[in-house]
Amino acid sequence: MSKIKIIVDSTADIPQEWMEKYDVDVVSLHVNWPGGESEPDVRDPEEIRDFWKRIINARELPKTSQPSVEQFVEAYRNAKEEGYEEIIVFCISTDMSGTYNSAMVAKEEVDIPVYVVDTKKASGVNALVARRARELADAGKSAEEIVEFIQKKLERGEFAAIFYVSDFEFLRKGGRVSRFQSFVGGVLKIHVPIYIDDEKGMMIPFKRVRGEKKAQSAIVDKLKEKWGEGRKIRVLMMHVNNEEGAGKVLELLQKSFDVASHEFSMMGKVIATHVGPGTAGFGAELLE
Questions:
Q1: Can you name the CATH fold of 159-286?
Q2: I want to staple 8 with a disulfide (CB 3.0 to 4.6 A). Which of 12, 135, 218, 222 is the partner?
Q3: Is-contact 9 26, C-beta < 8 A?
Q4: Residue 280 CA from chain centroid, whole number
């Protein structure tokens, strides 16, 4: 049985404890402030909470950037030195970042097999993908078999990323609003439910609602529309300074689905920069 290292980029927003539990390494994207200061997108909860406070009060939001090729090369070489024989990398959608390209270029510079997957997703979904991959590796599957299995699940739409933003101004400031402008118009102080589509990996707004309860119901209704009620799923609840909102969404999910497992995680610096405080939602995997 091959010893497999699983790597995600930091936008997977993986719970810190999962990194050890599922033997997952993280390659950080970066947050770049207007004054020239740059900081890594780390998974330390205390540092993430501090960052949330800083972007709430920031006059100008920072920009975000993908990991360098050198960061991935270092991660691959470290894995080889630690005795791993194959590497699988799960990356944020290429529609949102050039991270996949960095990971692909880097694999040509190392002498260990590396499989790079554009999940066409982001945030907690990619954490769930990594978890599933580790379970398959523990069951004796090769890296090639794991990648094939995961890609088929992604193509069948068996992973979902659905959330709502509470302050649309962050998507506008972050430069992500252009494709939504006609949808939202000038009304920014609303809750906007969004899903990441399966084919292109794009963020798609699908409703405009006033009131957080309506937004919470809307994203659960979207999952029911996608998979049908009563299906067995596992979820990773995600939020930016809104664990209460994520908890309310979980309650609604538990009424409509057979939720086999659930955990909570914090959206990190890069994702939070684009979606803003008050965001809540989930990554979900269809189990059967």
A1: Hypothetical Protein Tm841; Chain: A;domain 3 (3.30.1180)
A2: 12
A3: yes
A4: 12
